[in-house]
Design brief:
With about 475 residues, the protein is mainly beta. The chain has 2 domains: about 325 residues, Methylamine Dehydrogenase, Chain H (7 Propeller); about 55 residues, Roll (Ubiquitin-like (UB roll)). The protein is about 10% helix and about 40% strand. It is built from 3 helices and 31 strands. A hairpin with a 3-residue loop joins strand 24 and strand 25. Helix 2 crosses helix 3. The longest helix has about 30 residues. It is globular and about 60 Å long. One of its GO terms (biological process) is proteasome-mediated ubiquitin-dependent protein catabolic process. This is PFU domain-containing protein. GO terms for molecular function: ubiquitin binding.
Length: about 475
């Protein structure tokens, strides 16, 4: 059984010739919900982590070449639905010579692994009491990361080198619903508390100084799913016709939401109309036709680029400064749950609802024949087959969105339509859901109506929570 959902209807996306699908990584048996990337300073290899509903996380790596094959280095187990992954960079001085692999799970645990010892975590962090939805590390002199949870809190963790363990430095409260997005603006030091952003299903983004709420940003009209601190502005970034014109030293961050938008916000106090009010978004990026789940960034010769992925079967590349949509890349799935960028090549990694990790590159080189080795580059034939599947998904989405729009106009009683695949040889079954419904009753009635196994009820409820919580 698999799931997809439809929000407000819109037209299908177009494809782009500059980015090409080069690798399909097969190791998971269910949705890939999270990805993270790094450049391993010890080996010089690009590395990526993928986490899945199948209760595993997988570590992949390759040489610094878009045409190199990915090696499956390790699998990490023990989760109940792996919902977040992150790398901690190696630091000999801090007593982390190989760094760590972090995973967050529906069981409310954060597991901290030695990358070479995937059999058992070095430490289990149990301070959260609900799903750990997101993990973000910061490259600082002292290792630090932040976690966000459905328990309505975020927590800042610092490395205690005297005992070689993580300790919770701050608990960030005041959100009224699940925390989906986090970001470290300034890490804590011996004399400074640090600055942190959190985003929630309560529609608000909050800036904390230490554990004290400092500023609130409002503007999204649905769940805020992710946050991303953008690189410092280049000298020419403030130029152009975009309004408002940016200050040369302005620091910006991006957010994505179930409302289908990506918004760019300023950390500059000059944008604040009153104390504690972060002001309006300085840019609103529109183009996705459904929920926007994940954000990533990279820089090329033309400047900073922002990548977003979502429930419309695409990831999109933007110039965040002038609000211009540069590329739309269709993926052969409905849900593109997560996106990240490999740091050496600027290749784009996406985690998909069909259990696959896909890698896209500007390099168009292909293998001469179909790949037989796990992680090998795709052949021209394999890439063409994937492109055809992506086009078919976009046609299906366009039809579903039209039907959803018509049904919403007729009854006005639901906020989204979930599409539940019960078998490979049968079309997905639609399930209309509202935030005000009793989700357990909705799932139970659906299972009874279609004579499905009773075990489907819990999974359907979990998916409804993921869409709305």
């Amino acid at each position: 059984m698999s799931f997809s959902s439809s929000g407000p209807a819109a037209a299908s996306a177009s494809s782009d010739d500059d980015f090409h699908l080069t690798h399909v990584l097969r190791a998971h048996t269910s949705d890939v919900r999270c990805v993270a990337t790094t450049l391993d300073p010890l080996s010089g290899r690009e590395a990526l982590l993928s986490g899945s509903r199948d209760e595993t996380a997988v570590l992949w790596s390759r040489e610094q070449s878009p045409n190199a094959a990915f090696d499956k280095d390790a699998s990490f187990h023990g989760h109940r639905f792996c919902s977040a992954v992150e790398f901690i960079s190696p630091s000999t001085s801090a007593g982390l010579p190989r760094g760590q692999v972090l995973t967050g799970s529906l069981d409310a645990q954060i597991r901290c692994f030695d990358p070479l010892r995937p059999d058992k975590p070095l430490q289990l962090l149990s301070d959260h009491w609900d799903n750990v939805a997101v993990l973000k590390a910061h490259t600082a002199d002292e290792p630090v990361f932040i976690s966000g949870s459905w328990d309505k809190t975020a927590r800042v963790w610092v490395w205690d080198r005297t005992v070689a363990k993580w300790a919770c430095r701050w608990v960030l409260r005041t959100h009224e619903q699940a925390v989906w997005g986090v970001e470290i603006i300034e890490p804590p030091t011996a004399t400074q508390s640090g600055k942190y952003l959190t985003a929630s299903a309560d529609l608000f983004i909050r800036l904390f100084h230490g554990d004290q709420l400092h500023t609130v940003y409002a503007g999204h009209t649905d769940v805020v799913r992710s946050l991303l601190l953008l690189p410092p502005l280049a000298p020419t970034d403030g130029a152009g016709s975009a309004d408002p014109v940016l200050f040369p030293d302005e620091r910006l961050f991006a957010s994505s939401s179930n409302d289908g938008t990506v918004r760019i916000w300023s950390l500059d106090a000059r944008r604040s109309p009153t104390q504690g009010n972060g002001g309006d978004a300085v840019r609103v990026l529109r183009g996705h036709t459904s929920l926007v789940y994940s954000l990533a960034t990279y820089q090329d010769a033309s400047g900073s680029r922002l990548v977003s992925s979502g429930e419309d079967g695409t990831f999109r590349i933007w110039n965040p400064i002038c609000s211009r949509l540069l590329h739309t890349i269709a993926v052969p799935v409905v849900s593109v749950w997560a996106v990240a960028v490999l740091p050496a090549s600027n290749d784009i990694v996406v985690g998909c609802s069909d259990g696959l990790v896909r890698v896209y590159s500007r390099q168009a080189a292909r293998a001469e024949e179909d790949s037989k080795m796990l992680g090998a580059p795709l052949s021209a034939g394999e890439a063409e087959a994937e492109a055809q599947k992506a086009a078919e998904v976009q046609r299906t989405l366009a039809t579903r969105n039209t039907e959803t729009s018509e049904q919403s106009t007729q009854d006005g009683t639901h906020d989204a339509v979930l599409h539940i695949d019960i078998a490979d040889d049968k079309p997905p079954l639609p399930l209309a859901v509202s935030r005000s419904h009793n989700w357990l009753q909705v799932a139970s009635d659906f299972v009874a109506l279609h004579a499905l196994p009773h075990s489907y009820i819990e999974r359907i409820v979990e998916y409804i929570q993921l869409v709305f919580q």
